[in-house]
Amino acid sequence: MDARELAPQLLNKLVVHDDPSGHRLAARIVEVEAYAGSEDAGSHSYRGPTRRNATMFGPAGHLYVYFTYGMHWCMNVVAGGELAATAVLLRAGAPVAGIETMRSRRPAARRNRDLCSGPARLAQAVSTRVGLGAGKGDLHPWRYYVPGDPNVSRGPVGVVQRMRP
DNA sequence: CTTTGGATCGTCT
DNA sequence: GACGATCCAAAGG
């Protein structure tokens, strides 16, 4: 399965997490971004397997979670192709269940729409071209989102917008 | 509402 | 030793 094929299929799917205290948290995915492994300079797996991205080279369906900026975590769904190492980053979601618990984990969120409207925000609330080295202002072409959803993260003006098929 | 700068550390060269 | 698939508070219009 190619990441670009999988990405739009993940929209409107639910990310569910049962926390230790018995609360069930859920978010509906409203924004994703595909990373095409060795063909995509913005992908962590672009330069081959490393200790961190080993999960992306493993079986499809696994969750690749990484730590960045010294304080944030992000989640990817591995699309598969053990050589291709493609994956889909979950960029934003709409809170569905366990909103009170989410708020307690994210005191910085002022409104409900701030709970999951970003890659690290989603991971913190639910848990469980981009970085392009060359060129300035390059836009990642493989971002998909649910049109009009208030939880979609604020991208830079001019981001290539791909509508849901 | 928009802009700006600081926080903070694992991973790779 | 440098940098990053980011977030947030503060300050200015």
Describe this structure in words.
The chain is an alpha+beta fold and 165 residues long. It is 14% helix and 28% strand. It is built from three helices and six strands; from the N terminus they run αβββββααβ. Strands 1, 2, 3, 4, 5 and 6 form a six-stranded antiparallel beta sheet that branches. Strand 4 and strand 5 form a beta hairpin. The longest helix is centred in the N-terminal third of the chain and has 8 residues. The structure holds a DNA duplex (13 and 13 nucleotides).
Chart the SSEs and their pairings.
Elements: H1 3-10, E1 14-18, E2 24-35, E3 63-68, E4 72-80, E5 86-97, H2 99-105, H3 119-126, E6 143-145
This protein binds a DNA duplex (13 and 13 nucleotides) through residues 33, 35, 42-44, 47, 50-52, 66-72, 74, 76, 89, 91, 108, 118-121, 129-131, 140.
Keywords for this entry:
165 residues; alpha+beta; 6-stranded antiparallel β-sheet; globular; disordered C terminus; DNA-binding
Major sheet: size, sense and barrel closure?
6 strands, antiparallel
Derived from helix and strand composition plus strand pairing, the structural class reads: alpha+beta
Number of strands: 6
Oligomer: single chain
Output the number of helix runs.
3
**Span from first to last CA?**
17 Å
Radius of gyration: 15 Å
Q: Round the mean pLDDT to the nearest integer and report it.
A: 81
Question: Regions with pLDDT < 50 over 5+ consecutive residues?
Answer: 129-140, 156-165
Shape: globular
Strand composition percent:
25-35%
Q: In sequence order, what are the helices and strands, one letter per element?
A: HEEEEEHHE
Helix content: 10-25%
